[in-house]
Every structure is written in structure tokens, then in C-alpha cells.
Amino acid sequence: MNSDERIEAALKRQPADERVYDAPLAALVNGEGVQRVRPTARPRMRTSGLRALASVGAVLVLAGALVRFGLPFGGGLLGGGLLGGRTTVQPTGLIGCWGQGPGFSPDLLTGPGSAETGDSVAAAVLRQFVSSPDGSDAPAHGWYLIEATSDEVQFVARVPPGGPSDYWQVVVKRGTAGQFVTDGWSLGGYGSCLLETVPPAGYGPATWGLDPSVPFAAGANELHILVTEQSCHGSDPTEVGRILANVAYTDRDVVVTVVARSPEGAQTCPMPPPTPYLVVLGQPVGNRDLLDGGSWPPPTIATGGHAVVSPSPTPYPSNWHMPMDCTGEADGPGSFKAASMSATFDVYCAALPAGWHRESMSGDERVVTTVTVSYSGPNGETLTLSEGDLCSGGLSVCAPTGTSAGTAMFGDREGQLFTAPPGADYALYVAPGQSPSWKATGKGMSLETFKALTAALIIVGK
After folding, report:
1. N or C terminus of the chain: which is more exposed, having fewer CB within 10 Å?
2. Phi, psi of 414 (to 5 degrees)
3. What is the DSSP code string of 304-316?
4. pTM above 0.70?
């Protein structure tokens, strides 16, 4: 069975009432009338190959092909922790880069990847990218096609030196705005990808580890963990009431998957400490493997009745964030990943509420001196960021203008706030007159909204 046949077979594994696609996958990713090959609407349970296990808690089952490295496919996520209330939501059974939806079935990663050898236009753009200087860090082979719509095709490939969850992601889009234009398609974006479980709508991904203040007890019916919310959520630890946990039991594994209900409004990203949380187990872990279902494949937290001590990785700077956290990185113009990798200064992007989209971007060339990006809101609001050597045209180009209104935050940097600058309602300057410097302007919103959006700006990791 070749790569396209494996992908097509995985895509057809749908519930009885869900739409099935009979056309060969290769025909669905050419340059004419590309169609979505996998529905992304309401997630469904998939429980083939493994008998459901009953328990007093919420129980999931794993797909037969994913007994060892699968995801929750049934049951519900159980809330409560240190609180008394309990709420259930349906898990998706899907994975995605950084836990972002719509996600895809882990079945699509079965066997060796070879999507780069396909004869589609999207595959041709992928081959040009991995053969270019821009793609020198990307794998040359082993690519999987994980998503195809009428306007976008996404590929991932495992990074050989990395861990099992370390992948690269490449997005090819309809249009000629990107590099490697081929028959009306071009490169839409690329960057690193950590595969995580896609949470249900209204929730964000989370991971967990054992709470070191409470020794792990394999025979106990309580599990004390520390929950780390992956999405931006301000400077305080995640509230216990926003956390939901799901436990899946098999003869070999106990898989605990945690999600966090998304907070309302714009959020800053200081990455506060994790939240202590109590999971009540329907049965003790015993000698089975205890796994964190938030990542894929799930990492082992305990085995044989003892906690696993993982080696400490070399940490990234704590204020770095992934490009796919940026609004519009997957479906907007330009690439913050490319801009950050090429720039010698910190490149910031916006992580905006629902309804906002990236309108335009410049500065993601091979040699970056300035980055400019514009966003549009649901009610006609605009937010524009300018970063880098803004004074190359003279001090008058980057000097603050308007009426001084104190200070405000540009991500983790404090800046000078002005109202009524030319062409905007507000402007925020960081290190004006210097190189590099940073500037944000806003129009069509309140001052408090502008300050909240600029405070939520994040640095794109290199």
C-alpha cells in the first residue's frame, strides 16, 4: 500500500453517519478545485479495536492501532480537581501542531512518509522549499500530508534528531503571495511543530507532570499533578475551575489527558507556574504505565509502580513562543517563523481574540531589517506592528507623535503611549530613535482594548 492509499484509508475510517470520500487523494490536492479530504466539523468517537472499560470515572478507549501511542477516543473529560463541580465534554481524538485545530487523525502518520514524492502541485512546492536555503533545516524526506482544503495543503515530517513529537510543518496555499509559486500555489508558511492533542472547542491544550510535593503512590486512587496550560492566559496560574481531566484505562496503560477552558479576552503570555491539581482515579495505576495524553505519542510519567525521571532538556528562553501561536500564521500572508529566524532582534506577533485576521505582512525575507504586519478585527478595528530598524529613513520617521498618555506594555517591554497620532487613534513606542525599536498603532477600538492587545504580544522563537 503506497502513501496515498494509506492516507485515503485513514481518512475513510469515519463513523457510519459521517461523510466518506471515495476519490483518490492525489486528485484532491492538485491545482484545480482542491477539495477538503477530511471533515473538520464536530469531532466523533472512534473506538475500533479495543473493548470499552467501565469505571466510576470518565473512561476513554483507544483505537486498536493506537493502543500504545493513541489518544482518548470516547467518554468525556471530567472536571473538578480540587473543586466539587464536575463537567464533561467530548474529546476530539485528533492531534495537531501545538494542539491547534482542526487537527488530524494519528492514523495519517502510520508507516513511512513520502508525500514529498507526490505529483500534486502542493508536493511540487514542498520539494522546492526543502531544496532551498530557506528549507535547509527541514527534513528532505519523510513528509506526511495531514490536511487538504480548496485553498491550503499542510504537511508534517519528523525531525530525525528530535524526540518522537518533534516535527516540521509546511503549509502550501492557493495564491502567488508566497515563495516557490507553481501553477497558482505557493509556500504559505513553515516552522517547528510539537504534536499535541487537539482539545474540544472552547478549550486549550495542556500538559502535566507529577507534583513533586506529593510522592507518587502506584496503589492510590488519587493522583497529584501539576498542570501547565499551553495557551496564553495571563500572569496567574490556571484556575482549577478551568481544568478538565480525562482518564483512560487499559491493561497496560493509564492515560490522563488534561485540557483547560479558554479564558475570555486578550491574554498576555508570561508563562506562570503550573497549577496543582488532584485527579481522582477509578482504579490505581499499579504497575501499568502512566501516560500524559496531552502530547503525542503520550510520554511515560511512571512505569512499574515508580515515577520516571526525565533528563532536563536545554530550555528555550522563557519568553519565546511558537510561530503557530501568532494570529494568521497558518492562513495569513507572510511568515513570522521566517522573519524571526532571519532577524537579529526580537520579533513580536499578535495573539488576538477570535474574529481577528492578519491582513498583510512584510519583512520575512532572507535578510530582515524591519518587520511590518497589519491585523483587522471583526468590527473594522486595525492593529499594526512595526519592528526593527525603523529609523533608517531618519529620526523624523520613527519619532513619537500625538499626545502623551503614559506607558503601556508591548508584550514584555514597556513603551511610551500616545493618543491621536497621525492616521491612528493610539500609538505605542518602545525604544524610539534606537535600532532596533518597536511600534504599535491601533484604530477603531477603545484605549483599554488597544492596551490589552499590545500587552498580549509575544516573541516568536527562533
Report:
1. N
2. -85, 135
3. TTEE--PPPPPPP
4. no
